[in-house]
Specification:
By secondary structure, the protein is an alpha/beta fold. The protein is built from 11 helices and 12 strands. Helices cover 38% and strands 17% of the residues. The strands form 3 sheets. It has an 8-stranded parallel β-barrel with strand order 2-3-4-5-8-9-10-11, surrounded by 7 helices. It has a two-stranded parallel sheet with strand order 1-12. The model has no long low-confidence stretch (mean pLDDT 96).
Length: 296
């Protein structure tokens, strides 16, 4: 491995989008987000993937696109974690991207998620009924292009979220077509999401195939959704040279099956996966260099 390939960037997905904080211990307020980020940062995470929640009493299970909330949350995380890299979520249903666009403009994250294709977002209960009404997470090319334009305007590095093999393959088209501009946006970066019921499964053989469909020189990481069964794939990601992500958005479970008390223990376990594969956990400054971001 080269020195850069030998380093593993760790991302902490702090809270997610709809988990009810009254049922699961996910952070919501700026102070809670900062405290969880600090624990993850101290455990080795250089990147914080940030979802925003409504701040009104009893509404913390709902997403927010209020730029004031974005500024308060991101500001608190940056103060708690000097040099941290912010990765801001952008996922919305429908063509109106004004909410996430205004949050990007307000906080200027180093990275923003760019959902690279559409997915039938489905899940069944044990009895065969729908866990929620079937929905389409719609990300047509026009919407992808609109997000990339805002990211270019703000000097933000896109991270392409890929829920299926065809979405992985589409990213190369965005590069060749010029929607993604490497001279302005850095190295193409893929986030491979495995474990969504109607997307790519938690399959180590599939994971090993996916890098062959990426553009040359790209970075990639895996986001693994599930319980204890995610951890062998985290180790496989590390062995294959991918970057690593976990946190309370993706799972509540540690490798031994215990429920995590917070994001810090999740990142400690993720760092152990990197180290077991002979990888060095990248510092925030090293992560910025690998990603092609400006120094803090």
């Amino acid at each position: 491995m080269s020195q850069a390939a030998d380093m593993a960037i760790l991302t902490c997905a702090l809270t997610g989008v709809l988990t009810n904080p009254q049922q699961h211990p996910v952070p919501v307020t700026p102070a809670q987000m900062a405290a969880e980020a600090r624990d993850a940062f101290n455990a080795g995470a250089s990147v914080m993937h940030v979802h925003l929640r409504r701040q009104e009493e009893g509404l913390g299970h709902l997403p927010s696109w209020d730029p004031e909330v974005a500024e308060a949350v991101v500001g608190a995380i940056r103060e708690a974690c000097p040099g941290v890299i912010i990765n801001l979520t952008t996922g919305v249903i429908g063509a109106d991207i004004s909410g996430p666009a205004e949050c990007i403009r307000r906080v200027r994250p180093e990275i923003a998620a760019c959902n690279a294709g559409s997915l039938n977002y489905l899940k069944l209960k044990e009895d065969g009924s729908w866990a929620w009404p079937p929905m389409v997470f719609d990300n047509p090319v026009a919407k992808v292009a609109a997000f990339l334009a805002v990211m270019e305007e703000c000097g933000v590095h896109p991270e392409f979220e890929c829920f299926d093999v065809g979405i992985v393959r589409s990213v190369a088209m965005y590069v060749k077509n010029g929607l993604f501009k490497p001279n302005l946006m850095g190295r193409p970066e893929y986030n491979l999401v495995l474990g969504v019921a109607s997307g790519m499964p938690l399959d180590a053989d599939l994971l090993a195939l996916l890098p062959r469909y990426m553009v040359e020189g790209a970075l990639w990481q895996s986001t693994l959704i599930g319980r204890q069964e995610i951890w062998p794939l985290h180790r496989r990601t590390a062995e294959l040279g991918g970057m690593l992500r976990t946190g309370l958005e993706d799972s509540f479970y540690l490798p031994d099956g215990r429920r995590a008390s917070g994001n810090g223990p999740m990142i400690e376990a993720l760092a152990a996966c990197a180290q077991a594969a002979g990888r060095t956990v990248a510092s925030p400054a090293q992560a910025r260099g690998i990603l092609g971001l400006s120094p803090a």
